[in-house]
Amino acid sequence: MTTRRSFLKIGAAAAITLAAGGAIYRLAHPPALPNPFTLDGEAKAVLAAIVPAMLGPVLPAEPAARAAAVGDAMARTLAAIHGLPLSTQKEVQDLFGLLALGPARRLLAGVSGSWAQAAPEEIAAFLQSWRHHRLAMLQTAYLALHDLILGPWYAEPSSWAAIGYPGPLKELLK
User: Fold this and answer.
1) Which InterPro entries does this UniProt record tie to the protein (predicted)?
2) Which domain holds residue 31?
3) Is residue 103 part of a domain?
4) Tell me: the pLDDT tens digits for 137-151?
5) What is the torsional sign of CA 50, 54, 55, 56?
6) 167, part of any domain
7) Comparing C-alpha atoms, which of 69, 80, 72 is closest to residue 146?
8) CA distances in angstroms from 120 to 21, 54, 123, 128, listed in the order given
9) What does the pLDDT look like over 107-159, one tens digit per residue?
């Protein structure tokens, strides 16, 4: 049985680990001056792994079309992030940086290998664990990833057919 004291200790250790991981990533990858949010190779691999897991069955089945759709979704996600306030962009960059770090990837996401080699089931399990985690911080991180990926995807009219949405009423467009 978990005592209140051990729960608080685990929470404090998790917070310190997250802060340390973000600080290490910031030191190793200082933001570019004109555009604070950038994705390096491993952080881009994080996004490339999470996008298909989030979008799931709405992506095309044919491999070339699927890869193109994932690339479009990543570009829309990055555009959405660039539209956020700079302080929020920094927090999103810290999240991707943390997930890009090997130890944090293993401890927080449960992904043992690199993101590029992670199985879709492993990524889906990681996302579901964060979605229903008892720590609100991880739930918030999941919601941020969810909104940053799905918002731009469904804002694009070309994505509406996959869910059967015909578009806004013509009367509302006048």
Assistant:
1) TAT_signal, TAT_signal_bac_arc
2) 4-162
3) yes
4) 999 999 999 999 999
5) positive
6) no
7) 80
8) 25, 10, 5, 12
9) 888 888 889 999 989 999 999 999 999 999 999 999 999 999 999 998 888 88
**Type of residue numbered 128:** Q
The torsion region of residue 167 among left (phi > 0), alpha (psi -120 to 50) and beta comes to left
> In this structure, is the dihedral angle defined by the CA atoms of residues 27, 111, 159 and 165, taken in order, positive or negative?
negative
SS3 for 6-50, per residue? HHHHHHHHHHHHHHHHHHHHHHHCCCCCCCCCCCCHHHHHHHHHH
Q: Tokens for 52, please give them.
A: 């298909």
Cα–Cα distance for residue pair 98/107, rounded to 1 Å: 11
Q: Give the position of tokens 């996401």.
A: 109
Asked whether residue 168 is domain-assigned, the answer is no
**b/e map of 119-134 (b: 16 or more CB within 10 Å)?**
eeebbeebbeebeeee
Sign for the pseudo-dihedral over CA of 68, 73, 76, 78: negative
- The verdict on residue 172 lying in a domain is no
Where does residue 48 rank: exposed (0-12), middle (13-18), buried (19+ CB within 10 A)? middle
Rounded distance between C-alpha atoms, residue 28 and residue 30, angstroms: 6
In which element (H, E) is residue 170 found? none
Number of domains in the chain: 1
